[in-house]
Amino acid sequence: MGTTSADIDAQAGEREDLLAIVADQRGNLLYTVEGISDEQAGLTTTVSELTLGGLVKHLGDVQRTWLAVVDGTAPVAVGLADLDPDGNRMTEGETLTGLLDAFHTAAAEFDRAVRQEPDLGRLVTLPQYPWSPPEPITWSVRHVLLHVFREIAHHSGHADIIREALDGADTTARMMEAASRDADVNSGAGVNSGD
Fold first, then answer.
1. What is the DSSP string of 78-122?
2. Any bridge partners for residue 77, and if so which?
3. Phi first, then psi: what are they for 138, rounded to 5°?
4. How far is the C-alpha of 51 from the C-alpha of 65, rounded, in Å?
5. Is the dihedral of CA 93, 94, 97, 98 positive or negative?
């Protein structure tokens, strides 16, 4: 039995729904880091060593790493020596703007690969890490996409706590303020009427 146009339409709808929730989580992270300086992006504000800049860097890397798994360019095995010890921290000379640019580039490339993927059920083999079980692990592209969503959501929560400890900013409140401003602008309330 072959693939029907209804199957293709259903998969396209699912794909866009999944990409939309990933984009939503990226947006949450971006609200959290909006308006901070490079110095603030590198500060630890909790007992964790995580920083806002380090999380942006890590999530850009996460998307690039999983893109390589999807497109078949990931290494077969990754040893401890292959892991970047600075992969979760903003290092001297890095800027939040540079890290955000890399994050956006990785997001666009990941999304493009997912949109071009003909079959979200296609299986991909994950690299072997020191903590992996001995047998190879395979996931569907759909599973990879859901994993990327989970990673971004997980670390967006960390970022929210770090930002609140930094300056009291609350991501949800900032999102509501932005939505209110957008609604005002779209309704004409934000337009100067000449009064």
1. --GGGS-TTTTSPPTT--HHHHHHHHHHHHHHHHHHHHH-S-TT-
2. 128
3. -120, 140
4. 21
5. positive
- Cα separation, 175 vs 183, in Å, equals 12
Give the contacts of 30 (CB within 8 A, at least 6 positions apart): 100
- What is the DSSP-derived secondary structure letter of residue 174? H
Residue-by-residue DSSP string for 28-87: HHHHHHTT--HHHHT---SSS---HHHHHHHHHHHHHHHHHHHHT-S-SB--GGGS-TTT
Instruction: Describe the chain by its helix, strand, coil percentages, rounded to 5.
Output: 60, 5, 35
pLDDT tens, residue order, the chain (195 aa): 555 555 556 667 899 999 999 999 999 999 999 999 999 999 999 999 999 999 999 999 999 999 999 999 999 999 888 888 888 889 999 999 999 999 999 999 999 999 999 999 999 999 999 999 999 999 999 999 999 999 999 999 999 999 999 999 888 888 888 788 888 888 776 555 444
